[in-house]
Each structure stands twice: as C-alpha cells, then as structure tokens.
Amino acid sequence: MIFRDAIRDDLDAAWRLRTTAFGGPRERPAAWPGDLSAERQYVAEEGDRLSGFLRVRRYGQFFGGKAVPMGGIASVAVDPYARGKGVASGLLDAALAGMREDGQPLSTLFTGVPPLYRGRGWERAGVVEWAELPIDALRWVKRPLAQVSLGPIDKSSLDDVHACYLAAAAEIDGMLDRSGPAFPLEPLLDRDLFTLARSGSELRGYLDAEHGPDGVLDVSSLIAQDSDTLAELLRSLGSWAGQLQRVQFRLADPEVLSLVLPSAPGKPRVKPWYLRVVDLPTAVAARGWPNARFLADGTSAEIEILDEHAPWHAGRHRLVVRDGSVHCEPGGVGTPVRLQSRALGPWFSGSASTSTLRRAGLLDGAPAQAAVLDTLTATHTTPHMLDMF
User: Fold this and answer.
1) Regarding the domain delimited by 129-271, which CATH topology (the fold level of the hierarchy) does it fall under?
2) Is it true that 129-271 and 279-377 share their CATH fold?
3) How far apart are the first and last CA of the chain?
C-alpha cells in the first residue's frame, strides 16, 4: 500500500470515499475541496484503487498569546473494503511527517473514534462549547454605561473584524487565528446576521449568527473587548423575542457570559477536540509563555519524550527559562520527567496537570521537574475553540 500526497486526478475518488464515510451528494461539487493552498491532502493507494483519504488544514492556534502553526486533521475516510488493514494509521503517519516538513508543530482534530487517534499521540485538550437560553432573557441584560453603536457589516470593515477577533482570540488558549486562505473574509457578508459594535470609530466587538431550526438563533461568534460592548450586543439579540424562542451561543470564554447574563444559561453542551505535539522544539519556540515571568532565569526542567510515531523529537530535552521565554534544548543529565506522546498535547495546552497525567499513566519521573512544567502551562481554564472542521 502506498501513502502519498493527493493530486487533482484523485479528487473524484477521494470525494466518493468521503461521501461513503460521512454522507452527502454522490457527485463532487465543483467547489470541493476549495482553495488547495489552505490544506494538504493525502491518499492511500492499493493497486489501481484509492482506499483512504485525509486532509490537513493549515491553521494557527493560540497558546500563551501567540498563534502556533497547526495542522487541522479532517475528512479521514477509509474504503469499507480496506478497513482493518492499517489504512487510517498509515495516513496519519504520512500526515505527521508532512506536518513536520511544513512547519506545523501542532495538530488538532475532532473525532468520534478516539482510540484510533490516541494510538498515534493525539489526546483531548480542549472543547467547543455551546450554551442555550430563552431569547427573552436577554431583555434583562443591564444597559451599558458607555455609548455603543451597532451597525451592519460591510466590505470596508472586514479587516477591522478580523483584527477585533484576533485581539480577543489571542487571550484564549485554543482559539484559531482565522488567518490565511482557510478563512476568507468575504463570506461573512452573506451571513444572516452580522452586527458590529463600535465605541466612536473603534470596532470593539461583533456577533455572527444564523437562523437555526425550531426557532433557535445560532450565534457562532460573540466577540466583545469590554463589558459595555458585550451588554449591547446581548441586548440586541433580545430584540428577537417574539420572533424566535431561543438563542444558542458558541462560547469562547464561558465565564464571561455567565457573569454578564441575568441568569445562568442551562447545562452546556461540549464537543472535545484532540491535540498532538508534532515537533516539541518548534512548538516551544512558537508558543507564548506568560507564566515564565514567575520563574527565575535559568530555571529548567528535564524531560524525556516517548514517541515512536514522531521519532524526530523523541528522547531527552531541557526546557530552560531565559528572558521571560522558554527554550527547548536537546540532552540532559538529571532524572527527567518522562512523557508519552499522548501527554504532550494536554500539557502543552494547559488542559491537564502533570499529576493528572501521572495518574492516567501518561507521565512519570521527577516531581520537582514536573512542578516546573505545571508552572509553565497552568491557566486554570479549559482551552476553547469556536471553529469546527
């Protein structure tokens, strides 16, 4: 079996694999797969037949205030007649090598079959979260103290919208940077509802929503840089009471919304995403490290990575704090903290402490070194993302 990059002649067969796995029209849409500069595609070939397909989207994901290049795994499809032959695993191995080659030290995916991806080093590290409440409850949001003006989106405001999003996303671990060809801005003009919130001439927030089924307004993005902007946007949604019954929010920072709403929303619904560190030294260099300021210059932690599927970063490393940043250097002579590949994503994202990973059997070794690792990534919040792919 051959695992290789897809070519244009593969697209019809790849579409058939995808529709067999996930459903959809039999004929490939002319627009699929979209802008090929936004992704890299892989196929498994057996004889004269494609038996598997996988896409790696070119994204950036915020950690510590900086966007780290990330490969978003999507559309993993295997021919029913080829299942159980290692096709999906072979595609993932090819994608891991390709992501390293393309400078993507992280990889994120959504899955309904975690064992497959855990076997190749991905582990749960964050969530997409939704909350729903009666839309008339938003009428009781307190009026903002400052003047906030609302208006529609237009073409001249697209760059400001993206800058506003980046300012908010950079403060929330796990958010995508929505930059590059994977996120064209023009389709925002066609949304059912896209409201801008300004203070004077400055864009301070926006909301992006679509009419969902059964009288629900689905808010996919609610971005606000201050409480007055958030309050005004929420009150504007309350004006839909009588026409719509409920509103569903996709949450970037759930605690903020719960503190502003007059009553707490119902039990949230979550969809986990899984993270893998593809190349630790490159990921460390790209990440922001705001907690490094709490450690003295020269503080270090010695680690050993156990990762048979990414051998390029397996082995001994030292994480060293210098000038408020963290550097990953090869080698080490002390007793290390040993991390299995599945431990790297939860640690890097800050979603799990070393004690949690130790109890799960994914980490062992020197407690003093582990304490440094905890200090570096501790955020006390679950990483969130607004996007699904």
Assistant:
1) Aminopeptidase (3.40.630)
2) no
3) 28
Two tokens, residue 300? 């270090």
Report the alpha-carbon distance of residue 136 to residue 143 in Å, rounded: 15
CA distances from 333 to 154, 261, 284, 301, 316 (A): 59, 53, 20, 11, 9
Return the CATH fold of 2-121: Aminopeptidase (3.40.630)
- Beta pairing class for 246-251 and 216-224: parallel
pTM of the model: 0.95
Q: What is the pLDDT of residues 355-388, one digit of tens each?
A: 999 999 999 998 999 999 999 999 888 999 999 9
Which residue spans within 200-292 are E strands per DSSP? Answer: 202-211, 216-224, 246-251, 269-277
Pairing of strands 300-306, 337-340: parallel
Name the fold adopted by 279-377. Nonspecific Lipid-transfer Protein; Chain A (3.30.1050)
C-beta separation of 220 from 209 below 8 A: yes
**pLDDT digit string, tens, across residues 129-156:** 999 999 998 988 999 988 999 999 999 9
Q: What is each CA distance from 214 to 129, 245, 268, in whole angstroms?
A: 20, 8, 19
